[in-house]
């Protein structure tokens, strides 16, 4: 089964087969139908030679056995497996729980990521797609390790008006106001916090100077009409800014306003790159100067609340018992939702705490040749428990869920689009809840295209489910909010103007912001209908 994605010529087109975008040359010309069957003949380079088969000419297949049914389904989806992989699918089909449709979705999702089809991979992917939400799996693990609510003393003194900039050793002042046991541990942690702040000030200033220098070089190249020299410069600037947003340590201690300015700078750099490609040199140079002025106006002013949190977390790590680590990690992972302002970097750090980047960070630490401190995250903790033989019964299933999500988030280099999914456990109303995040985006140069993407969020509240769909095309944004409760819809609508202003502040132009009731009578049918109107590669946005 194929779905038309993009017609290139009268004989060539990009079509979606399963969850993969495939370049196809049709022997009899590109079909006019949106959906059709294809018979793949042979592959020539990166293009398949194929023949279109009208749906009207296809009869109903009645499989005589389980094996025949699997083979027919694989063939209809354009999925080609080795005999060893087919045998793994057959065993998975016979032994794994869930409906036939769910198993089909698991196989399709795994092959779309170009992963080897093994029983282990199938079970992991199936657990992530169709098992209990991650928040539900974590709840039993927390029953014996719940921590009391923070006291007023632990939260620290209220944020007061800043009369001077926080720099270097001054940053320890906030931590010194905490009421903690006077001991050698506290002295050690205080010293660590002070040194940390000094290093962050240095890192910030180095990065700021480097960005200003590159922006000057870019503006100079544009003024001289040197497009070949200017293009790699603006790409390097965008990469440096993205890397800072995702990994810069100093950004963890600033407020939401600073992060918003960096996101705004990223949007402006994207405009400069587009202006350069279109030959609008004056506009590109003007935008570069605006970004330079914006970045030079930044001051590293650590948030008192975040410095105190770093102090407390550093103190908690001293002599922590193994069974207390889980509560601390999950508390830190859900911290972004409890902050006064939910930041993009806060979400990334939450995913990092859960262990979604565990293998990547462990490999980076190993290859660096340096003795880096071990990365503390949920996955590394559970793996150590399993290795020691002290893991709770639920730990193995949590590991399966996390690893399954990692498999399904594999970046496929030669794919026109990428699909990702995340389950983000949060503490809501004293219980563990799960926000499902599904991403479908174009890809290029090894990255997701944030200007052209589609996101779907699903969360369950005490007022019913909420689904939020965001579609961005060249930073033109359409937002649709689905709710089960009219009361909840009214509350969310009261925040519409605030949300719109915030999105426009970071470089999006909101074209549409709509609210509609969620179809609760037949969610599966509703999801299927919506999938039919979209490219098949986006089905994981709707299969929650």
Automatic annotation (TrEMBL):
<feature type="region of interest" description="Disordered">
    <location>
        <begin position="520"/>
        <end position="544"/>
    </location>
</feature>
<protein>
    <submittedName>
        <fullName>Uncharacterized protein</fullName>
    </submittedName>
</protein>
<feature type="compositionally biased region" description="Basic and acidic residues">
    <location>
        <begin position="525"/>
        <end position="535"/>
    </location>
</feature>
